[in-house]
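Lab channel / #folding
Pinned by the channel admin:
"Please post every new chain as: sequence first, then the structure tokens as a reply. Keep commentary short and put observations after the output so the thread stays searchable."

First post following the new format, from NK:
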Amino acid sequence: MLFYFAPMEGITSYIYRNIHQELFDSVDKYFMPFISPTEMHGFKKKELRDILPEHNQNISVVPQILSNRADDFIYTAQKLIEYGYHEINLNLGCPSGTVVSKGRGSGFLAMLDELNRFLDHIYNKVPVPISIKTRLGKDNPEEFRTLIHIFNRFPILELTIHPRTQKDLYRNKPNWDQFEEALAASTNPVCYNGDINTVEDFEKFRLRFPSVERIMIGRGLLTNPGLVREIKTGEQITKQELLLFARRLQQDYQAIMPDNPVLLKMKEVWSYMKNSFPGSEKIWKKIKKSRKLTEYEAQLFILESGLDTPPAAPDGKSLEQLRESHFFD
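Reply from TO:
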């Protein structure tokens, strides 16, 4: 069984991926947040930082492209190949309204002729394997019965299927009946993605689909970074590991950005990880309300120490001075 970490825009950057790999060492492949090429070509600064080889050493990473223009996809893929990448992923799954309104992501699934021509062009021009992440369709899961015939025309390295439609967004349960039909119909290797949030979720899926050898997990790993390790070995994540993960993320973010963006990053990380701390709702509310990084650090100290409030600052020092003196380390 191979386990992949799904991309999450704004969270799973190279900093997150590297620390996760170092601390948990359980994921077989990480997918980057999508690159959205434009007619101007080239990479945005954030995209370039994420794909640089020196930021992805000793880690299996796949860049993902979001596009409905074959020439833009091919140009971007060629540049990624120059950086040393040997697999490119096409995003046909993003359900965001702004993406779909431009006919990209899962919005592209409703444009059958255009999609067929697009795939024909990129599979003939890109010299490395291309994998695809898709949904069942734009509005109706039965759309996949037509889509699978298009996909089967091409040598897709892996077809990752999230068994919801664009219209579903992340509501409703993944449609396992339709996934079963898609699995039987696909001539390409299939990877499953959707609502594997616990070991129990994985076991239920495995019981029904014992032949599936690839699983992509997103929100489940954001909530519990040790989920894949727990599935593989039974070893559950500890409070200390979660807090160490948070500390390492904060430190590496602070090395490249000011405190306010770091605070926003950590709030987003904790919006998921809070669910791995039973009874932490009170702390989470205070983290959300934190206006300064030092206020966030005080709440993290409460989680670390088990105290109800952070200790009084000695000698009248401010929280800023305490941080500088490594009081919270």
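NK: Residues 123 and 154 are 7 Å apart (CA to CA).
TO: also worth noting, The mean pLDDT is 92.
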